[in-house]
Amino acid sequence: MPIRVKLKKVPAPREPSPGPTNYVYVELPDIREGDSFRDVIKKLSRYFSAVITLPHTFEQLRTSSAGSELRSLVDHLAMNCTNPTIVNALLALKWHYVAEDKSRDLSGARAHACEIVAWRFLGRLSEREAVDYCLYEIPELDRPDPIPETIEEEPSSERSPLLPHSNGSYGRRSMASAVGSVKRGQLLQSLSRLTASFNIEEGQNEEEDPTAPFRGLNALEIAAISDSKKFLSQGVVQKIITAIWNGDIVFWDRLSVDGIKKPRYYNPATADPFSRLRVPKYLKTWEIFFFLVFMALYYTVLVERDIDVVTGTEYILYLWLAAFLYDEISAWKDAGSIFYTSDIWNLFDMIMISLGISFAILKNIGIYTHTPEVVEVAFDIFALEALFMVPRICSFLSLSPYWGTLIPCFKEMAKDFVKFMILVIIIYCGFLTTFSLVGRNGFTFSRMTLILTKIFFGSSGTGIEIMNDIDPVFGPPLMLLFICLSSFLLTGSLTGMLSNSFSRVITQAREEYLFVYSIYVLEASTSNRLTHFLPPFNLISLVIFRPLRLFFHSETKFRAGRIALLKITHTPVVGVIMLYESFRRRTVQDDFAGFKGPSFHQEDTLQPSQAQQSSGDGKSAEVADAKEAGNEGSLVLSQMESRVNEMASKIDRLTVIILSMQEKEEEHRQQQQREKEEREKKELKEKEEREKKEREREEREKEERELREREREENERKAKEEREKKEREEKEEKEKREKEEKEREEKERQEKEEKAKLEREEKEKREKEEKEKREKEEKEKREKEEKAKLEREEKEKREKEEKERQEREEREKREKEEMAKLEREEKEKEDKKRQEAEEKARKEQQEREEKEKKEQEEREQQVKEQEENDQDEQKPTDE
């Protein structure tokens, strides 16, 4: 049987990837070391607007030729740019492009470009330089200081700041209020005004600085605000964040009145142990302990359920609630409203606190007024707190990769569910209205609501049973339509939508987890207070130091008192932390063991060589089959068919050869990769050994220098003692000679001193009187100011009460008008119904009268006919 070869049609040429048709060279931005944050943003924005002119996906910009300009920009920045605000500007621009309404696809491509350039630029830097750029805060003045070469030129220690160029920008005291007052809308508006002001020349000044809301924010904070999840998931960024989490990078290394917030590497040998109270890992541990105690108190109070008195457990619970509330307020002030509201668990905390306060108020009111019903309502409200308290446990699990992935999925599904339920409610209300009106004779509105709710949740049989009772004509089709709509269409759509939401988030599991992890670390590390009291110790600080602020105005003494109280109350906690860290240092040799970002374990996948091998085996089988078929039909093949078969066999053999070559090449590449990894491991090990030897040599040199310094100081001390002894002897001889002269002058001096003493006492007396007078005047002035303040507060309170009273009167007036309107409408309806009834009765009366008249006429006619018949019958009889 001849073999017929069917050649495939030549495919059409592939459409090229999106890109500019004509290449236009765009000059790289000239970002100088002294450029301000606003200038850097303008230059970068001009460059991205000129380079990114077509929509691209993130992967296209990262892997294809569409991102070649970005690679050139990264090379240029890595070699020529030393401006410390470069990463801040890139991430701020990314946020601006994401929030831009017009040309979303193009703006999204530019946002991806900003994020790619930011993390690639950090990848070109050393670890210390990456820390410098990521933790650089935009200074208060619009002149950022350059980053000096401190790592290579000067020896660093735990007290050398990571950002020596900041000039005290980390010591700002107003960061909490600044960040707390800055809203996302203000930041976006600032960026919009900044990127739109390209027509302003370099020498001109705007009326106000658009970058003012960004002052005090570092690159990591801007990345968290702008949802730069890919940037935060990079290894170099995660090393910094996890170092902050573990306390390898600290912002406060000692607790003193002159302490300044600066990022430093932690050194346990010289740092203050109480500075470990600011480490996010230990803060989270204490938060878990505090929450478990709070949960135990909650369940104890609910189980006891004493409605007559406030028990001791409830007093402790009230104390815990007060500490919880004060800690949340402090967290909001420290982290700012942006970071505080970005964590959904903070909303859970505020709801729990509100329910607890409501319980305390209602129960005390019920006990005071002797109304057990109010106390029962208080316990019922308090029972609602379990709806938020128990799920709050998930917040402690969100730092693990598994739970950190599931919780964002659940949040996204909940958002889509709420949106979908709006459509469900609209459809439900339409059917409810129809069924209530159609079946109004047999079903009430509340009963119909319950029936349709049961049907929506799967009880379709209930609707089928009552559809004829609703209405024989409209009931069955409407009920069947509602059952099909709710049981199949809506339920299936909801399931598919939630599945789509889950798959959309789970594909970015690593980024979602690391984003949640980064948000918590940044929220815990942005506090600018020197002393942070853990709950419930914060109540001690509140009770002691808040009243003292009214009388003591010395900030130094006030801070010293807070530090002393912190050390007294938190000594056991610090002791446990030090014990844990000493054990950890003995078991982990690396000085910065925690300086590693969270990692994910990927599942093993099939090697390409194995796939190619299986493909090659399939090809070999196909070649063998083709050869056998060719041998069986070789006698009947024509000359052209023989040539075609020969060519096909050659192509098959060539395919097998190419596949084998690819397999060998893949094996060779894997072998080279393994050798490269072994060389890198060996070089890394040698580098670690060299660094260890270098550290040992430096320690020996340091000890020798200290020994020589001590010997020199000892020699100087001995020589100094000999000189002092000689000077003492000379001084004694001189004093002996001068003693006689002093005795002669002593009498005169005593007289002068007595006279001066009298004058001095008189002067001190006058000064004391003047001081008492000034103090009295100041006291009267303060009393007047306090009195004026109280009067202003009383006036504001009266104005507020008057305003509330007016609003209440207006509201009551509107309600009365609405009631009167409703009554008028009801009266009009009743009058209309009464008129219709009277009209109907009048018509019926007329009909009855006409009918009676007609019947009377018929009766008269019948009587008349009867009389005529009687007369006719009587007439023959008479005849």
TrEMBL record:
Task: Enumerate the residue ranges of region (Disordered).
Answer: 145-169, 599-634, 665-879
Q: Pfam families under this entry? A: YVC1_C
List the source organism.
Lomentospora prolificans
Biased composition of type Polar residues is found at 605-617
Q: Where are the transmembrane segments?
A: 285-303, 315-332, 344-362, 382-405, 417-439, 478-498, 564-583
Query: What InterPro entries does the database record attribute to this sequence?
Result: TRP_calcium_channel (IPR052971), YVC1_C (IPR056336)
Name of the molecule in the record: Calcium channel YVC1-like C-terminal transmembrane domain-containing protein
Q: Which residues are in the Calcium channel YVC1-like C-terminal transmembrane domain?
A: 291-583
- Tell me the leader sequence span: none
